[in-house]
Backbone:
């Protein structure tokens, strides 16, 4: 056994980032800068139709990120955190090496 706990606990322990996909009505450079300034946001990657936000949940929860976006003036069409899975945690724990 390499680790024990819930998927959320293991992700926090490993310092893994959660990616949150967000579509907003009007994506501006100012909005992106405001999001980057939120504690726990490691990066904001503008994509064709959305933003991919890499978030340290031990610093800011997903729910608080949503609140920060609204406070920054974002009109949100879609807010979708990527699912966390055991395979990602396992690969990180074992550095991709298996027995």
Residues:
């Amino acid at each position: 056994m390499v680790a024990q706990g819930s998927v959320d606990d293991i992700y926090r322990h490993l310092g893994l980032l959660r990616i949150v996909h967000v579509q907003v009505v009007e994506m501006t450079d100012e909005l992106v800068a405001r999001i980057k300034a939120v504690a726990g946001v490691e990066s904001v990657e503008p994509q064709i139709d959305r933003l991919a936000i890499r978030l340290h949940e031990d610093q800011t929860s997903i729910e608080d990120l949503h609140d920060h976006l609204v406070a920054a003036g974002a009109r949100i069409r879609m807010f979708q955190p990527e699912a966390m899975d055991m395979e990602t945690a396992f690969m990180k724990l074992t550095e991709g090496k298996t027995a």
